[in-house]
UniProtKB/TrEMBL annotation:
Gene name per UniProt: gtf1
Residue span, Glycosyl transferase family domain: 294-445
A single GO molecular function term of this UniProt record: glycosyltransferase activity
Protein name, as recorded: Glycosyl transferase
Pfam families: Glycos_transf_1
UniProt keyword Transferase, yes or no: yes
Coiled coil: none
Keyword tags: Glycosyltransferase, Transferase
Superkingdom of source: Bacteria
């Protein structure tokens, strides 16, 4: 069995989760069995499963297993309930207790406390869950409880975990989450006793647990979704991304590392020149086989731009707004921009729209699970990200024949966009926002001056390598080699 290891999923996700969804699609095409494996407690897991098309028997959640029992590992949830929540609120209007009844049949009780914020200097008290109990709604039995602890360095972690009525009727205790995750993987290997392949998409804890269990029957693949490098100022001591540092200092305990672009693979070989066979390039996104791109498509009037991402600070969606306002006001281009996504930067983006007096042609559209159907309605895709390990939204837009305008970022933009051929790359400066906005504006001007027919033709040629059947075969070859 192949397991995709991640914390959880939500109604809105990052590129990591969408890479998993796409991998599930092509592994199905390749006839390879897999499960989505989530190790964090999600009090409403069935809703995002439904939104993103994940079947009941494709998903294993660690806490659902500990609560629902052994049959769940092979068959998923068997009895479904209505989701509901009840709150106990004290006289100071503070939440003190929350009962959540999940669709999957978990009764989750969160005992809430007031506490200071250990990570910010503030006099405001926080309210959060301190002690959690889990009950099986089918039997009424208490199956687990644990405590949250706000660590000054690791932030919120779990500890003092009790599991009740487990396999063989056992009551088990784990002092920390690492021990618990390791036990969870041990139970999985008993239930799925053939050779198992764990593809770790997110989380250092699963790496620590699985690396210690590595064997002929347990293979580990680490999927790197972002730039692995922080800087290489001293080539002898490269500074790695925090999320990849444990992996890159324990390479002897992982079978393969998958990166999304050949550029990133070559960059990793700078620091690990003897690991060429261990580092494999497989795109984390692709296009449907034989994509139907209209070679005669012409831009509309107004020309319609689209961007789609988490509305996070590192995506610089406000830079996109400012660059397009320049294109509209200074160059007289009749245009629209639709922004799809949600996140903490929405207020900043809307402020940029207001400041640019652009509310009649730039709109924040919210989340959408139907982007593939929406892309053909637009003329070009624009991104403001300084770093994309691959750029799933780039390839999704290219699938509809859209040229790309983005920053010249490692690694996805440089691999997917050929300057002047199927898009345009803008220089950027991490410490000078005005410079970056102006460079994006200049890239947009180059796009407007280009032959749109040629851009679409080159886009169609570019996506051939990224067709589903090609990537499905890449994964098949990797799994067979293990």
């Amino acid at each position: 069995m192949i397991f995709f290891v991640n914390g959880t999923i939500g109604m809105g996700n990052s590129g990591v989760e969408h890479a998993e969804f796409y991998r599930g699609k092509v592994l199905t095409q390749a006839g390879l069995p897999f499960r989505y494996l989530f190790y964090r407690l999600n009090r409403d897991l069935q809703a995002p499963m439904k939104r993103w098309g994940l079947a009941n028997d494709q998903v294993i959640n660690m806490w659902e297993y500990f609560t629902l029992g052994e049959d769940y590992l092979k068959h998923g949830v068997q009895t479904f309930y209505e989701h509901s929540t009840k709150l106990v609120i004290d006289s100071t209007n503070t939440h003190r207790k929350r009962d959540t009844y999940t669709v999957s049949g978990l009764h989750v009780i969160d005992h809430m406390i007031k506490h200071p914020d250990k990570h910010k200097k503030t006099n405001i008290l926080m309210v959060g869950s301190n002690h959690v109990e889990l009950f099986n709604m089918n039997t009424g039995l208490k199956m687990a409880d644990f405590q949250f602890y706000d660590d000054p360095h690791r932030k919120v972690i779990i500890r003092n975990i009790h599991l009740y009525h487990q396999a063989g009727g056992r009551h088990l205790f784990f002092s920390n989450g690492m021990q618990l995750i390791r036990y969870f993987f041990q139970r999985l290997n008993i239930a799925y006793h053939e050779k198992n392949v764990y593809m770790i998409d997110r989380g250092i804890d699963p790496e620590v647990a699985l690396f210690a269990m590595h064997s002929d029957k347990l293979k580990v693949i680490d999927v790197i979704h972002a730039d692995q490098l922080n800087n290489r100022k001293d080539p002898r001591y490269p500074l790695f991304n925090n999320y990849n540092e444990y992996l890159l200092t324990h390479l002897d305990q992982v079978d393969k590392m998958v990166v999304a672009t050949e550029r990133q693979r070559q960059d990793m070989l700078v620091d690990f020149p003897d690991r060429g066979d261990q580092i494999v390039t497989i795109p984390v996104g692709g296009v449907r086989d034989n994509p139907q791109i209209d070679p005669n498509k012409q831009p509309g009037d107004p020309i319609k731009f689209i961007t789609a991402s988490r509305l996070a600070i590192e995506k610089h969606v406000d830079f996109i707004v400012k660059a397009l306002v320049k294109l509209h006001d200074e160059d007289g281009v009749n245009l629209t921009l639709d922004i799809y996504g949600a996140g903490e930067e929405e207020k900043r983006i809307k402020t940029a729209i207001e400041d640019g007096h652009a509310g009649d042609y730039i709109h924040v559209k919210g989340l959408s699970a139907e982007l593939e159907k929406l892309y053909p309605q637009y003329d070009a895709y624009i991104s403001g990200s300084y770093s994309e390990g691959f750029g799933l939204t780039y390839i999704e837009a290219m699938n509809a024949g859209l040229p790309i305008v983005t920053f010249n970022a490692r690694f996805g933009a440089q691999e997917l966009v050929d300057e002047g051929q199927n898009g345009f790359l803008a220089d950027f400066n991490r410490t000078d926002a005005d410079y970056s906005v102006e460079q994006l504006h200049q890239a947009l001007k180059r796009f407007m001056a280009a032959n749109y027919h040629d851009l679409v033709a080159h886009t169609k040629a570019k996506v051939e390598r990224y067709q589903d059947h090609v990537i499905a075969e890449d994964w098949r070859k990797l799994i067979d080699a293990l």
